[in-house]
Amino acid sequence: MVSPSYLLSGATLIDGTGAASRAGMSVLIEGRMIAAVGPDGTLDVPADAIRHDLAGRTLMPGLIDGHVHLLAYAGEGQKDVHLWNVLTFLEEQTLHAAANARRALLAGVTTVRDMAGGRPEIAVKHAVDDGVIDGARVLVCGFVGMTAGHGDLFCPANIERRLWQTADGPDECRKLIRQYARDGVDWIKLCTSGGVLSIGDEAEWRNYTMAETLAIVDEAHALGKRVAAHAHTRAGILQALAAGVDSLEHGSSLDDELIAMMLERGTWLCPTLAITEYILANGAARGLPAASLEKARALRHGQLAGLRKAYAAGVPIFAGTDSCNTFAFGSHAWELQLLHQHLGLTPSEAIVAATSAAATAIGLGGKTGTIAPGRWADLLVVDGDPLVDLNILRETERLIGVFRDGRLLVDRGLAQAGVGVV
Ligand SMILES: [Zn+2]
After folding, report:
1. Which residues surround ligand 1, an ion (CB under 5 A)?
2. Topology (CATH) of 6-62+370-417
3. From the CA of 115, how far away is ligand 1's center (Å)?
4. At 90, is the secondary structure helix, strand, or coil?
5. Which sign, positive or negative, has the C-alpha torsion 104, 62, 344, 259?
6. Which CATH class is domain 63-362?
7. Which sequence spans correspond to the domains of the chain?
8. pLDDT tens per residue, range 175-219
9. How many angstroms does the Cα of residue 69 sit away from the middle of ligand 1?
């Protein structure tokens, strides 16, 4: 599959690094890569390049959603959060996962990191990479969780079929990680506290002992896999940070001591504001259990203050929505608005959190997340200026073009936009 070359010119360029936007810029795409970037009229352009004049449009890196769960119902309407996965053939769930990767792409997301993955998510990752299906690129975290842990309790206790594999004791954890490495995951994810949507636990429940946590991080790192930790509580966050995880998910109880640890260790923070906001606003109407709503409300206390403090102190933050069975795929740019509203990021900083920072956080720094020569051509053409109004990124009809790996996979009138189309 040979992609044509593209010259995108006349655009206002947001390059993803946080630098000021520049008007009158051109980007040349050749094959999978960005070949050149410069002021209009200065690039050496192959004669057969497809040209689009993007006057009045913004060109920015494709968004990265650093925290999603692809194995979720993707059809119209909603299904029971806890029952859909256990009542549905895995083959069928995998088709929905593929549809969710496509939904993300349609919403301007060119890369997602799946946080509870296994073979179905790996299958979607490969199918996207092979060009068999159009979707966001997928990085997969193999999920390691204890019996009665946050992941395990997504499955009602009276149903034997577990949604995710469990591993107890350092040796079982190591074995599961080795299996994941064999299967081809990119990351390992564990939980060091209970969660909101799990049934019958409390956020305060310890998930894994320190010995198990150390074994998980050691084994994953030994096999070249970074480690993400779900943690809401102070004890859970401390356990994850002390064991040396690479990214902290949620981080709902941050204080000065924990923030100092994150800074010292260079731990990335993914605050997942969208899922919390969604649950607090819509959880009751969505039919979530009262206990989950209560847990979400309790965690909210001090949550935003801690996250704000962390960002102000310089903890590196990246965007992730936790799109899943509860909060459907397609609203990924909402996280940028929430980072702006709740944590005080400027629109430019929020864009960085969802582009170059997210790329670095998930291990794709220098490959995607910025618009520069030699990067993968993951680009978003936006009708309007998201630096003036981040909400534009949530209006899919204004995302008039999405390129992933140099291929124009979403075209909502890009061809009509350009006067110089050949
Ligand atoms: Zn999650």
Report:
1. 115, 322
2. Urease, subunit C; domain 1 (2.30.40)
3. 6
4. helix
5. positive
6. alpha beta
7. 6-62+370-417, 63-362
8. 999 999 999 999 999 999 988 888 888 888 999 999 999 999 999
9. 6
